[in-house]
Amino acid sequence: MLVLGLLVATLASFVLEKVSVDVTALALFGIILAISGLEFSDQWPSLNKVLSVLANEAPLTIAAMFIISAALNRCRLIEQASETLSKFCKYGYTKFTLVLLALVAFVSAFINNTPVVVVLLPVVMSLSRTLGVSSSKLLIPVSYASIFGGCCTLVGTSTNILASGIMSESTVYPEMPPMEMFELSAIALPLLAISLGLLVLFGRKLLPDREALSNIISDIDRKEFLTEAFVLEGSPLIGKKIQDSEIGSLSGVRLLDVVRKGQAGAPSISELVLQEGDRLVLSCRPQGIIETRELEGVGLLNENRLGIEQVSSKTGVMVEGVVGPSSSLISQSLSDASFRARFNITILALHRRGKNLSTQIDGIRLQPGDTLLLLGTEESIERLRKSEQVILLDEPPLPMNNMKKKSPIVLSVLLGIIVVATLGILPISVVSIVGVSILLLTGCVKPSEAYQSVEWNILILIYGMLALGVTMESTGVSGMIATLVGQLGMEFIQPAWHAIAVLIVLYLITSILTEVLSNNATIVIMAPIALELANQLNMDLENARAYVLTACIAASASFVTPIGYQTNTFVYTVGGYRFRDFMKIGIFFNLIYFVGTILLVSWIWDLAP
């Protein structure tokens, strides 16, 4: 009952999102460790057994693959491929989409699919303009194609790596080997071919025609100018708060920052009390500049009597950006990160999962996938672009020439990992760590970049869920849930069809869970249950693997909501989508993967009578 209570509380916390999923997982890990330390029950796993999840090879392998993906991104291989992509624009939407999605699916089969989608965002935005179509006609297909490809191999997604670790450490089937590199391909490749074909042929009709963030915020005029004004001696504004002064009532004028004694980035501009000599950084429409000039006690920068170094007005550049999965801004508020002071850029709006968070932006803690509308000078925007803290969507990033010579090393390391793991010479965890060592020693990626590329929040989530999985298995909860699932599948079904009926229920439950939880959390819960189900049906080792592989496909094949898979979340706001857009097109691919997986698994493993 205690474990069931923890399971329900954890799932509820994931759904409600009052705290981040990694914090929930860490708290769960702590509670399980504390109960283990009290040793109040023989059924509860010992402290050493719970701590043994830290030695699980799956999270270590996932961390290594994050670093390898970062090395590939650092060499700008995907951006270089985009130069070839642009040549296909002249052939029209259908042929271009086929080439684009085939490339995304292939690359996603061998490196983590989230950075693939993130890197391609500005490329797709740019090429959509060349094609003359809305970016919303391409972004969902790119996300879906990355999922199609990720399902095909062991390293395509962290879901499969986790399932492989659970298989090799199973107590129900102790002799079960880990997943092979291309074991999932027999199921996933036919589904990929069918799904890509449907996306290319019918995607344009099914996909919405949406505008991006910068075009849907009606109260922001793109033609604005950045200028500066000064609070003059004896100004009636002195001693007043910004929000109570005449500046706040000017039409066509936004106060972006206040520079006082050379210090920019005031934490709360609206509450700031004005002083003589304060430099006001303004974003003005043409009419706003005229009104500001007429304001008593304020001098624009072209007033010679100021006696201060003059700065000419500069045209403000407005661009969109996305917080990447490994940005150092994650979990920081803009005020804590001193964003304005560091980059001299103002965030006009923040979109998260379809919601415009345009008020009190400075206090909001950023999350991966947050889309920002930014305003700054060209110099400031370029400085932000080089920092790689935010992925700007105005143009594709240029390949780094000095890293091109490292590309063969990175590709050789990736190919070596695939070959060695496929042939079974070394476990995937060992060969991936060796590969990372080679990349670090050859300078393909710096240690600081390697550590930054690891998505630690995902690893924390995995460790917390692995601890829950060990506890569920030790206390018999996994077996109890498996019994309930088995009863659902075998009720009113002839015994000869029990294996397929249970397989259907397993897929559906996993698919529903992955739409509201993360795919990693789902597979950690469902993979042990899949093995328990196979054991209760007296299946041999080979058929038991079929159940875990089915759970892998169901956990990754998340198409109907923008929150079920991280790549969907990233394109959600960038493409200006609405929640129902994913449901409208995603339901078809959910059905394809459901029906296709059941039929293929039943045929390949001969489960049908």
Short description:
By secondary structure, the protein is an alpha+beta fold. It contains 25 helices and ten strands.
Structural write-up:
It contains 25 helices and ten strands. Mean pLDDT is 82; it is low at 216-223 and 302-313. The longest helix is centred in the last third of the chain and has 26 residues, at 579-604. The two termini are 38 Å apart. The chain is 55% helix and 8% strand. The protein has helices at 2-16, 21-38, 47-51, 57-74, 77-86, 93-108, 113-131, 139-150, 158-168, 185-206, 213-216, 286-293, 339-343, 378-387, 401-404, 407-423, 428-441, 447-453, 456-475, 477-490, 498-516, 519-536, 541-556, 566-574, 579-604; strands at 225-231, 253-259, 279-284, 298-300, 314-315, 317-323, 346-352, 355-356, 371-376, 390-392. Strands 1, 2, 3, 4 and 5 form a five-stranded antiparallel beta sheet that branches. Strands 8-7-9-6-10 form a five-stranded antiparallel beta sheet. It is an alpha+beta fold and 609 residues long. Among the domains are: 225-315, Regulator of K+ conductance, C-terminal domain (Alpha-Beta Plaits), CATH 3.30.70; 317-392, 2-Layer Sandwich (Alpha-Beta Plaits), CATH 3.30.70. The chain is globular, with a radius of gyration of 27 Å.
